[in-house]
């Protein structure tokens, strides 16, 4: 029997591969020679003090900035929700969600978008302009993307818990668990642990 038959994920390439990744910013070395492979079902919690380089790493993974050296390989698609999600104030919650999906090449129907607003508790706010949302509601509006159909396999979430109440934190953790159960994976930053059912891998930056 082959090793791949015993450990199924070895049969597939990793969803995310970081090889000898180096990043300097503002004259500081944030990480040096970082190697990482993320496979189906992996949830990776990136930890570190303020300024350690967590957001910088997530932006590298998404191809939004270039490493000083090394390589980032994403096998299929990814979904990035930034620390400050770029919501347009003049759009309604529903318009924003459908527009974000379309820009990502995953256009969705109004019914699908409304269904994604239900778990984040924003169905009643669907027609409301985003300028009138609270911080927590803005975070929920951005996170609704995780409930759309055809989500990409790799999720990259920067501080997804910011401004969320306890109930929404639990709902997000359940969504992450289910995504991993279905063979997806995620990289997230957070200053607090998420109440996840699945085991979490962790990477601590700023300790060199
Ligand atoms: N545009 C930039 N130009 C130069 N240096 C930058 C830039 N953006 C961030 N930095 C620096 O890179 C370092 C890492 O920043 P980063 O935002 O990745 O940290 P972080 O771990 O996400 O912090 P936090 O927990 O506060 O969000 C910091 O020292 C920061 O000052």
Question: Mind explaining what this structure looks like?
Answer:
Helix content is 27%, strand content 24%. The protein has a 5-stranded parallel sheet with strand order 5-6-7-3-8, sandwiched between helices. Strands 2-1-4 form a 3-stranded antiparallel sheet, covered by helices on one side. It has 2 domains: 1-77 and 152-208, P-loop containing nucleotide triphosphate hydrolases (Rossmann fold, 3-Layer(aba) Sandwich), CATH 3.40.50; 86-150. The chain is an alpha/beta fold and 208 residues long. The protein is globular and about 45 Å long.
Offer a quick outline of the entry.
The protein is an alpha/beta fold.
The counted number of beta strands is 8
Please name the fourth-level CATH homologous superfamily of the largest domain: P-loop containing nucleotide triphosphate hydrolases
- Please, how many helices? 6
**Strand percentage:** 15-25%
For the CA atoms, what is the radius of gyration?
18 Å
Span between N and C termini? 41 Å
Strand order of the largest sheet: 5-6-7-3-8
Secondary-structure element pattern, one letter each: HEEEHEEHHHEHEE
What fold name goes in the CATH topology slot of the largest domain?
A: Rossmann fold
**Helical residues, percent:** 25-40%
Tell me which CATH architecture of the largest domain applies here: 3-Layer(aba) Sandwich
Q: Just give the CATH class of the largest domain.
A: Alpha Beta
What's the main sheet like?
Answer: 5 strands, parallel
């Amino acid at each position: 029997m082959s090793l791949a038959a015993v450990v199924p994920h070895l049969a597939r390439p990793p969803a995310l591969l970081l090889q000898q990744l180096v990043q300097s910013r503002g004259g500081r070395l944030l990480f040096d020679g970082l190697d990482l492979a993320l496979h189906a079902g992996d949830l990776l919690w990136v930890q570190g003090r303020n300024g350690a380089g967590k957001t910088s790493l997530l932006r590298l993974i998404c191809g939004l900035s270039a490493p000083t050296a090394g390589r980032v390989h994403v096998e299929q698609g990814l979904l990035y929700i930034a620390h400050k999600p770029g919501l347009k104030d003049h759009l309604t919650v529903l318009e924003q969600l459908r527009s974000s999906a379309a820009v990502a090449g995953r256009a969705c129907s109004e019914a699908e978008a409304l269904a994604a607003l239900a778990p984040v508790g924003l169905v009643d706010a669907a027609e409301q302009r985003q300028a009138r949302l609270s911080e927590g509601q803005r975070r929920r509006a951005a996170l609704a993307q995780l409930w759309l159909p055809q989500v990409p396999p790799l999720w990259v979430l920067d501080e997804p818990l910011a401004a969320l109440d306890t109930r929404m934190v639990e709902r997000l953790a359940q969504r992450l668990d289910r995504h991993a159960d279905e063979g997806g994976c995620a990289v997230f930053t957070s200053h607090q642990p998420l109440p996840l059912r699945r085991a979490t891998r962790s990477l601590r930056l700023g300790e060199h």
